[in-house]
Design brief:
Layout (H helix, E strand, L loop, with lengths): L2 E4 L1 H9 L2 H16 L8 E2 L6 E6 L2 E8 L2 E9 L4 H6 L2
Parallel strand pairs: 1-5
Antiparallel strand pairs: 2-3, 3-4, 4-5
């Protein structure tokens, strides 16, 4: 089981998200944090060490995993392939 933390950037993006989508994102993250085989439900971002993305409708949740800690880096509306390259740090 993971502990889920939001970066300051992800927290601001989450605040701007519509209320119904916030609930879906929270449910998806809670489910992912409890899942032993979480890596089957996400995609690893190319060119990164430990960054992944989770789809929640048209929104994407970018996060890192380190031992028992999951840090959400960004939440954004998917528009094109360039979205990931801009956000991966």
């Amino acid at each position: 089981m993971f502990s889920v933390f939001f970066s300051s950037h992800a927290d601001r993006a989450f605040d701007k998200t519509p209320q119904d989508m916030k609930q879906r994102i929270i449910e998806a993250l809670e489910s992912l944090a409890r899942d032993t085989f979480w890596y089957r439900r996400v995609k690893k971002l190319q060119g990164t060490e430990n960054q992944y993305r989770l789809r929640v409708g048209r929104r994407r949740v970018l996060f890192t995993v380190d031992k028992n800690k999951m840090e959400v880096l960004d939440i954004f509306l998917k528009k094109g392939g360039e979205d990931y390259r801009r956000r991966v740090a």
